Amino acid sequence: MGSDAIPQGGVNRGALPRGGGRENTLTLDELRRRMETVPGRGESSAQRVPLDSGSRNAALPVPAALAPLLPDGGLVKGSVVAYTGASSMLAGQQAAEPERGGQAGGGGMPRLGLLAAVEMGAQLRRLAVIADPGPDPVEVAAVLLDGLDLVVLGLGGGAVAPARSRVIAARARNKGATLVVADGRWPGASLQLDARVAGYTGLGRGRGRLRSLGLTVEVRGKAGPPRRGRLDLCPNAGRVEWVLREKAARAVEAVDTQEAVS
């Protein structure tokens, strides 16, 4: 499985300066221009209209093993999701949308491993990454929502005021894009998702080859009881993917058998 190393090519990169003033404004303007040219999104961004009642529950795809835990089987378009826990699940979501032809990206997540996302099926040409969104990451997210289907934003431990979170949530709804916020507090999120490392297989007394990573996942919506499950990240045919807990042991066993034969 890949580490958090970042490939050197194929990623749309940018970084907003930490200082304010004219330099920061120009950089945001440039980002807005780039969002207008995103293939499949930029051309129609000015013409998009708010989601109507018939499309409001349309959902972005997620790793198949995660879908049963989500109320709508995916991340609802136009919604804001608050995320806590392991970054590996965020990498999986970043992979799921570009793999199906969408555009994804975000900023403020230096620990998000793009190599891991590629091993899960991500297409780097459909990922826009801003490693350092500067002093106002929320404004950067607002711009990214103009051109991307999925935006993942790291808040750096900060909190967003309710008045501003409502404005950005309305923008996501208006653009039909989904915003996932992590590492901070965002009031009024429509969904809360938490993923914690539950264990590893393949390691014995600190040695050996890692076979799978397990996560316990909890999903809380605005209504109904929380949903919980266990997902494992396992190798499969040259890539890695999330699988349901009951299937994970069989996947790891199959890899061990294949290596023993070879």
Secondary structure blueprint with pairings:
Layout: E1 12-15, H1 22-36, E2 59-60, E3 75-76, E4 80-85, H2 87-99, E5 104-107, H3 114-119, E6 127-132, H4 137-144, E7 150-154, H5 162-175, E8 178-182, E9 191-201, E10 212-221, E11 227-236, E12 239-244, H6 245-261
Parallel strand pairs: 1-6, 4-8, 4-9, 5-6, 5-7, 7-8
Antiparallel strand pairs: 2-3, 9-10, 10-11, 11-12
Notes on the protein architecture:
The protein is 28% helix and 27% strand. It is α/β, with parallel strands linked by helices. The chain has a 10-stranded mixed sheet with strand order 1-6-5-7-8-4-9-10-11-12, sandwiched between helices. Strands 2-3 form a two-stranded antiparallel sheet. The N terminus and C terminus are likely disordered.
Q: Quote the distance from N terminus to C terminus.
A: 19 Å
User: In percent, how helical is the residue content?
Assistant: 25-40%
Order of helices and strands: EHEEEHEHEHEHEEEEEH
The global form is globular
The computed structural class is: alpha/beta
Number of strands: 12
Rounded to an integer in angstroms, the radius of gyration calculated over CA atoms is: 19 Å
Question: Quick check: average pLDDT?
Answer: 75
Oligomer: single chain
Give the count of helical stretches.
6
**What share of residues are in beta strands?**
25-35%
The description of the largest β-sheet is: 10 strands, mixed
Taking strands numbered 1, 2, ... along the chain, how are they ordered across the largest sheet?
1-6-5-7-8-4-9-10-11-12
Low-confidence stretches: 1-26, 42-56, 247-261
